[in-house]
Every structure is written in structure tokens, then in C-alpha cells.
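Researcher: We're teaching a course module on how sequence relates to structure. For the next exercise, students receive a sequence and then see the predicted structure as C-alpha cells, so they can try to spot secondary structure elements on their own. Here is the exercise chain.
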Amino acid sequence: MQRCLRWLMVLWCVPAFAAGDDYLVELVAAAHANGLAERQEWRTLVHYKPRLAHPGLESQADDQAFFNAPDGKTNPYAELDATLASFFSAPDEADKDRHPQCRFIARYHWLKQELGFDSRRLIEQPCKRFNDWRTALNPQRITLVFPAAYLNNPASLYGHTLLRVDARTQDERTRLLAYSISYAAATSDTNGILFAVKGLFGGYAGLFSLSPYYAKVTEYNDLENRDIWEYELNFTEAEIDRLLMHVWELGPVRFDYYFFDENCAYHLLSLFDAARPSLRLTDRFPLWAIPADTVRVVAEEPTLLRATTYRPARSTVLRYRQRQMPADHIRLATAIALEDSEDNQRRLAALPEPQRARVLEVAFEYLDYERLRGRMPLGNRTGARLHELLLARSRLDVPNAEAPPTPAVRPDQGHNSARVSAALGRQNGRTFEELRLRPVYHDLLDPQAGYNGGAEIEFFDTVLRHRQGGDGLRLERLDVIDIVSMSARDDLLKPLSWRLNLGAARKRVASELNPLVTHAKGSVGFSAEDRWGSLWYALLESELDVHRHLERGYALGAGPGAGVLFDVTPRWRIQLEGRALRYGLGDVHSGSELMLNQRVTLDRHNALRLEFSQRREFDQSTREGVLSWSVYF
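Model: And here is the predicted structure for the students to work with:
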């Protein structure tokens, strides 16, 4: 009965070409008999997913133009019937590529395969624009591209993913000339906070786009200093065709962009699902999709990964070059980049040719790095100076310096981004048990392999604690946002280090009062790395606490902070950190904290932590030690 009603709706909605068409009736009947609307291929092509709040399915597409039935967003059966009916519509002589057979070309070819369309009774329309587009792409392989995290852009805190279409006529030397497919929020907003807020609640339109790959490499590799990993995939020619046909369908379609789930990484997986429906990769991310995690599931899928390539960022190249040169050569490279003086030329000429070549290479890389960062050290002469440095280097018959080595661990081979920890500790002589849950992503003490050094990004890190003799399990700490960027300064690169934390934690504001105090913390300063790889940092820290038990309801303070992070062995990391703050507004008081934290990695998915701290605030001292076991999943 329901199928009959759906069929009557199709006839009502498309009377100009559906009424009395016997072949359409036959096709719809065959589609119903074969349960095509319930097949995974159909639900993937129209992006149907189970609703979270109540039973039924709903398409993740948020553009009515993507549907042929009025209720196509929530009714896969009606949408399939209406799609079949649309294939019989008369072509628009002014633009035949607007015909539904071309507009929904992936749907058309799948339904043609399943139902065996009779070309005499359903005339196949020429899709010239699509065929020309596919011919221009000339696809041979698909590569998943992962630019690593970039902390100075909220859209790329966790990294980014895009696809590269590798043409048959290209090789590794000309791969930059390929085209890339990406999905991103359509916005010109430059305010990071505004982007984060609107991105959390679907405030932007998400759209697919096609662009030259070299433009993306310039953006990520050079401008944003992000290492790029390329994962060449093992799709068949038929699967690549299905993927590209689905990209064509999605070209003008709006999806509401959500920072955590329906983001760049998630919707690229939907293209893989369309190419090979048995993968069902998007089903593995029902709540959130972190780009590194989506790359991980692709890389771990049997037979899907073909090869990997590493493209170091400009800053990575500069840091590597510096480690191969003495300090006086680095200073000479900086001087030559900025000034072609007789003294600089005399010092350069005194070097053996191999060392002279290295100095000129670093001088060029440094000046070009500054240019790409928008600093233009020599003003309008920067371009001319870069050309002079290239000419000087070309006159030396010395091979180019070797590229930075590929890291031993790829991003997909690092620890999983979710973490749960069970802990036992003592605070001022009282024992407690803790349960910690961090949905995403990485902190400074986590195993480093596969992640950016000196970077910490966490959301909704939650600590529940049960105290001996207490009144049950309660929330001890919640870090809604915790972002740290400890980028080391050196002779060439001089980034700022900073930290941002928003959340709540318990504080002893009185001898018997330990409430949950809301806070916002911000820090800025400098970091440096010594020759043993230890990271030292000094920060100017600030903190705003808000709670009704504080005088005037808040306390605002600032003060110095410093720390060091070093690895005793590849599995054993130690962090020593201290800070002293003076709260001069609101509730006037002083506070200090000293912490010694250690992590020992057991394997990729398990680690132990031993953490000691001593805090003093409101004339109250708190000593605490915690031993925890963390599992990454």
C-alpha cells in the first residue's frame, strides 16, 4: 500500500512525462522488487544516514536541488522513484547537460547497471560537459592528501584532507600539475573565534571544489608551513569513474558544514564509499571525524593503500638545513639573503664550494620563506635578490642538498586520538580514584610519533574523581578547549609560543570549600630547543577565574611561567613546569604551581603516567600525586 502511494506521488509530481509511460512503470516496479532503495549503494549516493533523535533516515545534503522528490531528504523510496521518473524528462535544447541523466550521472549509471535500461525505450542523453571534464582530468589514480595540523587556523587545527586526481600523462616530476578535489566551508571570515562558533553549529555552507594541486601545495606547504603526506590509493578504473561521477553530482550541492563531524575529512570518505560501497567508511564516524583518524582508517583498509609520499614544509626544510651547518654559516646565510655586500661575498668566497652551495641554498630558502610569510625583507627588491641567489647557486657544480628524511612514523601510524585513563592518586594524604576521558586529540605528554612536536590540541578533556571518605563521583576538571603551540625559535625561524585553555577546575578557595571554578587561560612567550632535543619555554601567563565564592565574583591575574619537555628514551618523556600568578583584579591574591609529569609508552595504544604537583592559592597548599594508565582508541 505504501509503495502504491509513493508511486502515485511520483505521477502527481511529474505528470508531463510520467503519466502513461509503461516503461517507467516497469522500471519502478523492478526497483521495488529488487529493494534498490534499501541498498547501500543508493543510500551512499544520496548520503542517507540514520537519524539520531528518532527512527528513520535523513540525507546529510542540505540543498533541495539535490532531491527529485519533495520529501527526498527523508524518504529514500520516494527519491528513487522520482529519480527514475526524471530520467524520462524531455531534454532542454538550450543546455542538455542540465538533464537529470547528466545532473545525477552517478545515480543514472548505477540504476542503469541494476535495472538494465533499454536504450530504445529510455533514450540516453549525451553529457558532453561531464565527458569533456573527465577527459581533461584523464584520471589514472586517486591520492588522499593530508596536510598536517596548523594551529594558527581554526579550520585546520586537526589537519586537513583533500584528494588529488593523478592523470595518466603525469609522473612524480609533474604531479604538481594535477587537480585536487576538496570540501570546505564557504566563508571569507578571518575571525578565528567566529569561525569556530559558526563551524560548531553548521553556520557555513560546505561545498566541493576542484583546483590545481600546486595551488594547494603552495597554500599548505609554503604559506602555512605544514608537512604534507600523500597516500596513493588502489582504486580500479571503474571505481575512479564512480568517484568522479559522484563528485560531478555534488559540485553545486550545499551541505551544512560542521567542525567536528560533517567536515572536510568526513565528506571525502563519502566519495570513497561511492567508489567502493563495501568500504562504508563514513559509518565508522557517527559522532566526530578527525582528519588524522579518517586517514588512519583509509590506510588500514586492506588492499586500499598503494604508496605514500612525504612533502616537508618550507620551515621543516629550513630547520633540517640548519642542523647540517655550523652556526657561523647560518649567520652568513642570513646576512647574504638580506645584503649583497663585499664583506659577505668575501666570507662566502673563502668557503669550499660544497659549503658555499649550502649557504646559498639556505639564504634562498630563508628569504623565500620570509617573502611567503608576507614580510618582504628587501621590499620591492626581494624578487630580484632571490633571482641573484639562484644564479649564484647555479654556477656551483655541486649536487643539491638532500631533502629532509621521511619521518619514521606517518600520521596514520601514531596513537589513536581518543583516550581513556584510569588513575589512582593521593591529595594531601587522602586517596582518590579517577576516570579521565579525552575524545580528541593529542597533548604534549602523549607519544610523539606521528604528531607535530610542541603541539597540543584537546577538546572536552574530562576528569571524574572519587575521594576517600567523599560524597561520590564528581567532576574534577573539564577542559573544553586546550591548545598549545610551543614552536622553537632558532637563528632563522622566530615564531611565538602560546597557549589557550577554556574550562573549569576545582580550587580550594577556603579550607573547607573546593568548588568548580570556571576559567579562561592565555599565555604567550618563546620556546627553544637544545642540541639534545629538549624543548625549553618561557611564557607570560594570564588567567581569569569566575565563581560566586570569589570576591566580586571573579579573579584576574598574570605572571611568569616556564618549563622544559625532554625525552629520556624514545618511550620515556618528562615535563617540568612551574608558574606564579598575581591576581590583582577582583579577588586579590597570589597563586603558584609546580608540576613534574612523566609518561612511559607501553605500545601504540597504551601508556603509563606519573604526575606530581604542588599548588598554593588562597593561603592553601595542595600536594598531589597521580598514577594513571591510558588507553588510546
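Model: If you want an answer key for the exercise: The radius of gyration is 29 Å. The chain has four domains: 2-126, 134-311, 340-394, 414-632.
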